[in-house]
Amino acid sequence: MDKLVIEGGHRLSGEVAVSGAKNAALPILCAALLTAEPLELTNVPDLNDIATMLKLLEQMGVKVERDGHRVVLDASGLNNPVAPYELVKTMRASILVLGPLAARCGEAQVSLPGGCAIGARPVDQHIKGLQAMGAEVAVERGYVLAKTPRLKGARLFTDMVTVTGTENLMMAACLANGVTVIENAAREPEVVDLAQCLTAMGARVSGAGTDVIRIEGVDRLHGASHRIMPDRIETGTFLCAAAATGGEVCLRGTSTGYLDAVVDKLMDAGCDIVGEKTRTSETIVIRAPQRIKAVSIRTAPYPAFPTDMQAQFMAINCVAEGAAVMRETIFENRFMHAVELIRLGADIKIDGNTAFVTGVARLQGAAVMATDLRASASLVIAGLVAEGETHVERIYHLDRGYEHLESKLTALGARIQRVKA
Ligand SMILES: CC(=O)N[C@H]1[C@@H](OP(=O)(O)OP(=O)(O)OC[C@H]2O[C@@H](n3ccc(=O)[nH]c3=O)[C@H](O)[C@@H]2O)O[C@H](CO)[C@@H](O)[C@@H]1O
Ligand SMILES: C=C(OP(=O)(O)O)C(=O)O
């Protein structure tokens, strides 16, 4: 098992390119199931989650061609609407095949995604929505089993804002008979990116980016080309790494437009952040003070502060001046990084869904264990500023969602190496 060894204390500076978004690419790969014509995707990040999703699609009969960041999917031979446990156990997003399979094949057997360290993460809203569209859905022996004649358009209301729930139901509705309206829909930019891809495939979707999405079902979708949006969470992670180290970094191929809440908090922390847009490119430049100020946050669905940035902000608050209150409202168990940060010398107290963080003058390197994807990122950020060496173990979590993180950080002046543990 690989681990990262980080020698802290090196200020980040220079330029880095941001990759395509994992959380946009995963649903969009599943959208290929909706058509018998090729779907060409560019800016697809090179991540373990993407490799797993491609394997999953391949074993369903989808032809996959991959050349760097370009992927072409051809689901004309789709013949096995099954997502087995072996392939879905590491990846929550595998549930995103459910809606497209039910819509295109009239049946699906999808293993419940594996347990995850950040919370229970049920899929009851995905199921409730498909049932409202006329599908018979049961959960048996760990599998969601769906059977349906052509899905029917329906008025859907989700009990809470769910990102993959919205995406699953939006994809299913594209081939349904009649109009579907999803109320209380997720407004995340990744939902909008998926809607844009579906529209390019001939779907009739309006309202993506608002909390009411309307989909007029069509008989079939066709092939298309689509470029995956930049990863706003990778962007935010590099901004935090720069902020923690008092650095000056230019991020290429990304935009402040996707993460207003994060940029706002980093400016409150004392950073100077400028987004620039030319005809051909977009960049963000961050200049951080020597020591940032602690900032309080409360996670909530987009456009509020993203839960996927909470762990990275905890890392920067650990070394900031002052104290912060951090409230996690999306997942019931997403403070696993706190105990590891405490091993590095952080001052953190947890009470239910609230963390109280008081900045310390310095962290000290130690061996720590990554427990989930963003927890891993927070430990890397803390390692960049801790005195001495930090060893981050179990980085397979990191490889699920960050493309070449250590080489990108090395290019910015960090001392970070991957070694066999
Ligand atoms: C692949 C992907 O895009 N993952 C993102 C997606 O996850 P994901 O789509 O799984 O997260 P949801 O938005 O669905 O979860 C929000 C909350 O709703 C609950 N819930 C959800 C569905 C359901 O049927 N029943 C239910 O109770 C969840 O347990 C959670 O407490 O959005 C999360 C919230 O922004 C992000 O952290 C993840 O990075
Ligand atoms: C929680 C995350 O991903 P997933 O939903 O794929 O587990 C994440 O991207 O931070």
Keyphrases for this structure?
single chain; 421 residues; UDP-n-acetylglucosamine1-carboxyvinyl-transferase, Chain; 2 domains; 24 strands; binds uridine-diphosphate-N-acetylglucosamine; binds phosphoenolpyruvate
**Count of all domains:** 2
Bound molecules: uridine-diphosphate-N-acetylglucosamine, phosphoenolpyruvate
Reading off the top of the CATH hierarchy, the class of the largest domain is best stated as: Alpha Beta
Query: Oligomeric status of the shown chains?
Result: single chain
pLDDT average, as an integer? 96
**CATH H-level superfamily of the largest domain:** Enolpyruvate transferase domain
CATH topology category name of the largest domain: UDP-n-acetylglucosamine1-carboxyvinyl-transferase, Chain
Note poorly predicted spans.
none
Sum up the overall morphology in one term: globular
Task: Specify the structural class.
Answer: alpha/beta
Would you report the number of β strands?
24
C-alpha Rg (nearest Å):
21 Å
Number of helices: 14
Q: Order of strands side by side in the largest beta sheet?
A: 22-23-1-24
The percent of residues in helical segments reads 25-40%
**Termini gap:** 5 Å
